[in-house]
Amino acid sequence: MMTYKGYLGEAFYDSDIKMFSGRVVNAKAVGTFYGTSVEELENAFHETIDYYMDLCERKGVEPEKPFSGKLNLRIPLELHQRLYQSAREEGKSLNRWVTERLEHLFH
How far apart are CA 67 and CA 99, in angstroms? Predict the structure, then answer.
């Protein structure tokens, strides 16, 4: 995984074309990049992000923000209280308790 200006890049080696290929994984609007070496791939990743941000600026649009890891939810008061109590009973913060439950959904 590579990071640049808050964006994450994931890379793979493509044996068919004998190149590394990568894609930005935390923003839909940013594309793919390629390189024949790790250094070339990293440079292409940076260039892709810089080009995207320049393009947005020229068009007068906000670039798509990468995911921050923060999620704000509006839930009923009663549910919030029950979640808090469950976390407290396990000696955990509400954030940690909810994160563990969400991670469990994907494992």
Answer: 16
